[in-house]
Write a structure and sequence with these properties.
Layout lengths: L1 H6 L3 H5 L9 E3 L4 E3 L8 H26 L4 H7 L5 H12 L3 H14 L8 H17 L6 H11 L5
Antiparallel strand pairs: 1-2
Helix pairs in contact: 3-5, 6-7
């Protein structure tokens, strides 16, 4: 995930170094914007700041999209309301730190215990096995081809 984010030049949004620009304060009584020092910005300054804010939201959303597309639905529900990409990434890391080995053990066990029922959809079964194998690979646990082959064969119904 970090490779994909880094390839887009967006790591600052993940690690929190990119800070959202602060918009000018709008004085509704005067119908004018104010800078932090109290002076009135020019129209081009307002437009430039709005462009920077839009760019920030666009790039932050790209990082969130990358994170959301690679995490489980359960984890997505837990982190999606946190706001910025850096807060979401921090929470995802916090949730997974120290649990990686336990998660790997659980995924390996689930993979080895999977069985396709008689008359079941074999394509769905193989897809789920492949997904678990890829998840393990993403955590640094590679299952060798001959072992994966044995797991697949052992999960098939007797009619195969």
């Amino acid at each position: 995930m970090l490779t994909a984010i880094g390839a887009r030049g967006l790591m600052r949004y993940t690690d929190g170094r990119k800070v959202k620009p602060v918009p000018f304060v709008f004085d509704s009584l005067m119908s004018k914007y104010k800078k932090p020092d109290g002076s009135e910005p020019t129209e081009s300054e307002v437009e430039d700041l709005d462009d920077k804010i839009d760019e920030y939201h666009q790039k932050d959303s790209l990082v969130k999209q990358q994170i959301f597309s690679t995490i489980s639905d359960q984890l997505l529900l837990r982190v999606q309301s946190l706001g910025s990409a850096s807060k979401i990434w921090d929470e995802v890391c916090k949730i997974h730190e120290g649990k990686t080995e336990l998660v790997q053990i659980d995924l390996r066990r689930r993979l080895q215990e999977m069985r396709c029922e008689e008359g079941g959809d074999i394509k769905v079964h193989f897809s789920e096995q492949l997904r678990l194998c890829e998840s393990l690979a993403g955590m640094g646990t590679m299952i060798e081809d001959h072992n994966f082959y044995a797991i697949i064969l052992g999960s098939l119904p007797e009619t195969y």
